[in-house]
What we know:
Elements (H helix, E strand, L loop, with lengths): L1 H18 L3 E7 L18 H9 L1 E3 L2 E2 L5 H10 L3 H4 L20 H6 L4 E6 L18 E4 L14 E7 L5 H6 L17 E3 L2 E5 L6 H19 L3 E6 L20 H24 L5 E7 L26 H4 L3 E4 L8 E3 L3 E2 L3 H8 L16 H5 L11 E5 L2 E7 L2 E4 L2 E2 L4 E2 L3 E4 L15 H20 L4
Parallel strand pairs: 1-9, 1-10, 2-12, 3-13, 4-5, 4-9, 6-8
Antiparallel strand pairs: 2-11, 5-7, 7-8, 10-11, 14-15, 15-16, 16-19, 17-18
Helix pairs in contact: 7-8
Amino acid sequence: MARFIYVLILTLTVSFFAEEKPNFILIFTDDQGYQDLGCFGSPKIKTPEIDKMAKEGARFSDFYSANAICSASRAALLTGRYPSRNGVFHVYYPGASKGLRPEEVTIAEVLKAVDYRTSIIGKWHLGDRQKYLPTKQGFDSYFGIPFSNDMWMHKDLELADDIKLFGGVTVEQIKSGEAGKGVKGQKRGGKVPLMRDEKVVEYPVDQTYITERYTDEALKIIKESEQRKQPYFIYLAYSMPHVPLYTSPKFQGKSERGPYGDTIEEMDYHIGRILKHLKSSGADKNTLVIFTSENGPWKLSKNRGGSALPLKGAKFSTYEGGHRVPCVMWWPGTIPAGTDSKEIATTLDFMPTLVALAGAELPKGRILDGKNMIALLKDGAKGKSEYEQFFYWSKKNIEGLRIGDMKLRVKYNTKTKTRAEPELYNLAEDISESNNLATQMPEKLATMMKILLQAEKDQLSNSVK
């Protein structure tokens, strides 16, 4: 009898904790600027749903993407490793022979091993060859455009038997390459495929409704997982506000910030749909929702690009505007409402944090650069960052280093293989990086320069560990 009671208690305990594994929804926008949310000071873009997330959760003012370009940023997020370790330094174009190395371990692979349903919806951009697709990197399902939404269709992508074709395109035109980039005089402009798992199901996809469709897919997976009582990890990688900009008719012309603002206001509305469902289903207390951006905004004219103000720089840059991005995290009952954190945190942290929350084990034999954020999340404004230093990578060189409030920047010229004159800033006093302190603080400059150069050397020499 005693043994029966013990087994019963153990079974109920295991069952309880299995049910209590938290769900994760990671929302990753494309080229959205630091300022481009209401809660980050946008004067014209209205984002009431994300603003409410911040009031009920946490706003991180010193949050960084691990890189200022697409593919490298996404590889770092999924692996918890700087580009120097995961091997992704550049952007992958359709048909590229390379992608995220199969031997890299993603968040999805680790969570899947502990019974999570893992799904990616939206932009992948880590290789479109079969061996590099999301379903080969731990994701149970994929629905989305496999790269940036301004690219093209590669002739070798596998087509579904029931593929939907639009604009008079034929299967023969796709397989010959005529429907892709190779057409003489054809310009890039958003004629891209929509994939489900490993096959193209639509071409060219109508991006007018792509934000809505991505959200519908996320809600479908959430509801199915709730019925199965299975924890889930959804990586919701919206295509917007990358150019070309698309919104559904309901949101066209609504924002004071033009077409760019329209895309963000539509995403905000649909994120609100997800949050409302979580609240109504009672899953909000057991679901961590993260909102952030891939990198800083593209500098474009006619209201097509975003704003990183008050930061300097933009996408591609190692100034703050390239790497520092808006971030809001929401988990009612766990993250104290109204948290406004000025601590350093990064997309590298998602791997160690989500894995720990799921009760899983981190990949063995791998150097991870991210930090476990659990204490930072739960302690609210009192939470402290574990970062002693953060590196700003640009291709195969470190161009920046932040230690505390001090930032060193030394731009690298890949053609001449030389560095520009160093820049040193106190970000707490000079967030816009306008007052170079290099000549005033020679000892600090020398110390930080030594750390930067040594880290670059060490990481590149150990890039597969």
